[in-house]
Amino acid sequence: MSKLIVDPLIQKLVQAMDKTIQSLKSDLAKVRTGRASAALVDPVQVEYYGSNVPLSQVANVTTPDARTIQIAPWENSLLGAIERAIHGANLGLTPQNDGKVVRIPLPPMTEERRKDLVKLIKKMGEDAKVACRTHRREANDEVKRHEKSRAVTEDESKKAQEQVQKKTDEKVAEIDKVIAGKEKEVLTV
To answer: CA 111, CA 107: separation in Å to the nearest integer?
Structure first.
């Protein structure tokens, strides 16, 4: 009987933690490293026939080299709108329009800027860990509620809480790994 209660609980916990990790990864993709990444211009919205649409829906965004983002619009008439949208997004990037494509050169980062980014990355990682611990607490509370209502025994409750802790430890280790990889990427010159 308890397996019917505990397994879905653990499954729900793992899904919630996986969502947290995915969110962390997508947030980290937007953190500017020394390398060009199409994700840097993801938040840019371009005015297209009276409505704002994501840049990726009106242009091909590529990174021809480690220091350049290249945006090739599907319609040449969009070049000015793309340039204005990038300026308006306050990304700290300066687009250059050559009549066919918009290029965004990324200046090399200073050592101080790299250290600031590492601090930001560590904070993002810590926030993700806090979210995972919140999921753990919620799962443990649910287990205790089931124990109180006698749906699971005390031993089963203890085992379930151990499983919850084990999954939490695994996910926190995964977050540490993601953060370490991003830190290395930022600090690599």
So the answer is: 13
Q: With cut-offs at 50, 70 and 90, classify the pLDDT of residue 132.
A: very high
Residue 17's nearest CA partner among 147, 148, 185, 163 is 163
Buried b (16+ CB within 10 A) or exposed e, 112-133: eebeebbeebeebbeebbebbe
Residue range 12-48, pLDDT digits in tens: 999 999 999 999 998 888 777 667 777 788 888 888 8
The answer to whether 174 touches 132, Cβ cutoff 8 Å, is no
d(CA 2, CA 151): 7
Integer angstrom CA distances of residue 117 from 20, 48, 80, 104, 112:
20, 33, 31, 20, 9
Cβ neighbours for 140, distance < 8 A, ≥ 6 positions apart: 161, 164
CB 135 within 8 A of CB 20: yes
CA quadruple 184, 95, 87, 127: dihedral, nearest 10:
-10
Q: Which helix (H) or strand (E) holds 54?
A: strand 51-54
In the chain, what are the domains?
A: 2-30+110-187 (1.10.132.20), 38-105 (3.30.1360.40)
Residues 40, 32: contact at Cβ < 8 Å?
yes
